[in-house]
Specification:
mainly alpha, MetI-like fold, two-stranded antiparallel sheet
C-alpha cells in the first residue's frame, strides 16, 4: 500500500500543484516584480527600482489608512472574541432554544460584505439623522460603525468555534474542580480557558486577518469619507491602483507592503497563542 502511494502520489498531487502555481504562486511573484516597475499593463512594465515603495511610504493617505486599520483591527479583535466567547459560554448551558439562538447569531456571516455595508449604512444613518449627522459627518462615527458591522458579521461565526472548544473541555476536570470547591471564575480561568486555547488561536487569527483585509464593507459603509479619514488599507490600495493614472506600480507596492504586514502580524499571533496551547 505504501509503495503504491509513493508511486502514484506525484501524479495525484500534480493537478492541485499546477492549480496552486497558476492561481497563486505565479501571480504572487509577478505582483512582486510589478511593484518595482511603472506599468499600465503587464507587457509594458518599466523597471524603476524602489521608487514605488518610497512613494508609498511618502503618501499621507497610505500612512493614515495604515494607522486607521491597526486601530480598527485591535478594537475588532478584542470585541469580537470577547463577545463570541461570552455567547459560547451562555449557549453551552442548559437553555431552551439553544440551537435557534446559535443559528440566528451565525446567519449574519452568510450575508455578502457589500450588502451588509449598505444595510448598516441605512441603520446608522437612520439613527444619526436625529442628531443632525450622518456616518460621514465625523470619522469617529465611521470608525465605530465599521466596528459594529464587523462584530455583527463575525461574532456568530467565532461563537460556533468557541462552542466546539468548550464542549471538548473534559467533564472530569470540571467535576474534580467542583469537588475541590472551585468557584465559577476559577473553573473558567484555570480549566476552560486553557482547554479552549486552540479555539482562541483560530478565532484570533481569523478575526485579525479579516479585520486587516476589510474592503467591501469599508467601501459600502463610508468609502473612506470624510476626507479619506476612514479609508482602510485595502481600500487605499484599490483607489491608488485604479484611481490615479500612472500609479499602478505604487498601488502594487502598497499591496506587497500590506501582505508583509499582515503575514508578519498573523504569524506572530500564531506563535504566541500556540505557545500557550503547549503550556496548557
Amino acid at each position: 500500500m505504501q509503495r503504491a502511494m509513493k508511486k502514484w502520489s506525484p501524479i495525484l498531487v500534480l493537478p492541485t500543484l499546477a492549480a496552486f502555481m497558476i492561481a497563486f504562486i505565479i501571480p504572487f511573484i509577478t505582483g512582486i516584480y510589478l511593484s518595482f516597475t511603472k506599468f499600465t499593463t503587464v507587457n509594458n512594465a518599466k523597471w524603476v527600482g524602489v521608487s514605488n515603495y518610497i512613494k508609498a511610504f511618502s503618501n499621507d493617505d497610505f500612512i493614515n489608512a495604515l494607522w486607521f486599520t491597526v486601530k480598527f483591527t485591535v478594537v475588532s479583535v478584542i470585541t469580537i472574541n470577547v463577545l463570541a466567547f461570552l455567547l459560547a459560554l451562555l449557549l453551552t448551558k442548559a437553555i431552551k432554544g439553544t440551537n435557534l439562538f446559535r443559528t440566528t447569531f451565525f446567519m449574519p456571516n452568510l450575508i455578502g460584505g457589500i450588502v451588509l455595508g449598505y444595510i448598516w449604512l441605512m441603520i446608522i444613518n437612520g439613527v444619526l439623522q436625529y442628531f443632525g449627522a450622518t456616518i460621514t459627518t465625523d470619522a469617529t462615527y465611521g470608525f465605530w460603525g465599521l466596528v459594529v458591522l464587523m462584530n455583527w458579521q463575525l461574532v456568530g461565526y467565532m461563537m460556533i468555534i468557541y462552542i466546539a472548544g468548550i464542549q471538548n473541555v473534559s467533564p472530569d476536570l470540571l467535576e474534580a474542580a467542583d469537588i475541590d470547591g472551585a468557584s465559577s471564575w476559577q473553573k473558567l480561568t484555570k480549566i476552560t480557558l486553557p482547554q479552549v486555547m486552540p479555539s482562541i488561536t483560530i478565532c484570533t487569527f481569523l478575526t485579525l486577518t479579516n479585520s486587516f483585509k476589510l474592503f467591501d464593507q469599508n467601501l459600502a459603509l463610508t468609502a473612506g469619507a470624510p476626507g479619506k479619514q476612514t479609508q482602510m488599507m485595502a481600500l487605499d490600495i484599490y483607489n491608488t491602483f485604479y484611481g490615479r493614472v500612472g500609479w499602478q506600480g505604487v498601488g502594487q507596492a502598497k499591496a506587497v507592503i500590506f501582505f508583509v504586514i499582515v503575514a508578519a502580524i498573523a504569524l506572530t499571533q500564531l506563535y504566541f497563542t500556540r505557545s500557550k496551547e503547549v503550556e496548557s
